[in-house]
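Protocol step 4 of 6: structure prediction from sequence.
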Amino acid sequence: MFKTQVLILYVSDICNLNCSYCIWPKEKEVMISKNKHIREFIENGRYFENIRKNVDTSYIKQLDLWGGEPTMNFDIFIPALKKHLNMFSSLETLSFSTNISKHFTLSNIIKFIEKFAPYYKLDIQLSLDGPPFINDEDRLGSSSKEISENIFEFSKFLQNFKYNNNVHTDIKSTISARSMHKLADESNLYDYFSFFDSCWDKCQTPFAMSFVFPGDYSQENGFEYAKITNNLLYKWPKKGIKFKHIRIPYEDQNVLHIARTLEAIMRFKRRIYSGEFIATSVCSVGDRRIAIDVDGNFRICHGVFFFYDELKSQHDMYMNYLKHNVIATSKMDKLRLLHNSVGIHNNVEFRIAYHQALATELVLSGQISRIYLKNKALLNMLAFVTSRHHCISDNITYTGDMMLIDASYLKLLGNGAFELISKYLGSKYDI
């Protein structure tokens, strides 16, 4: 039986949007059929019974709810979860991400908060990519104006809600290759941050910029990202341009990613002895969380819920490795795992070496800056940082092989942006 402190639940297979960068299959008939299966299992109780059979639920401290758009099944999931909460005796936090694009999604979010915020911490991510020229062209079926109004209404609700201290929210803006091209224009970039400044004025909700990952970035996108980075780190500070809640991508995060990698390795070794299943790999968020589908089958993470049939052999090969090399059930297992935990260190080293080799090939083929041939330390640092953003499930999903990585992220960082960031960090931390 798996032990994990964080478990991802597959709550919905349907979404009301059709985002251009989303890898979720959008065939209407398929979505409806799969979502019908989920709803049947939630309603007849088999959904939570399958969790009970396969997971030590007394150990779980956090449940992450994923879809599709998870709120679209909240009408039946909320009462079902409330009914089965006694399974999760150590539960502290519930989290989910929502597009909050329509009033019905807002209504379902409020119902969820009213039911669970009195007893648990809630971590809610609100998806809004930016002003209309960014959001409305990527998040098809949504309106930046309507999402913003829903967020403002949501903020007003929280201000008057008795347990609002238990609810944490943030806005996530996702940048695609298309929107990267738009933001390379300095006036558009200024309008982008001004937009989120106005959101902060109205609802005091912080936002973070993220990228489609692995994405389909070209060398041109790399040049564009370098322009964005130069504006954020050098040009605008000299001009005195400031925003209330600017989050500079990859400024301090590079240092944070390194620290997370090292800390995750040590945490992995510490927790093995307690017999806890910690993660499927070291990934960009520190630990790759285990997921379970409606039929009680484990998945590497939420990223492979919908591609399982097509990638079954690669996925099951890795899950079999986990069951035999990560789950400790006896003292002998713990001793064996302490010995084998060097494997995660070897995996990290392998990924870095792979990124070094791929980066070198990209330099020689003229797709990233030649500075990485001259400066090996910078090449090693680039490989280290980019390897943090690749994991087994991403590789399986995007390349079909657990060990074969995608090159687009190296193109994004390796054409000027990473050099500017490294220079900035060097001056800031005197390194």
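Step 5 (inspection) to follow. The radius of gyration is 22 Å.
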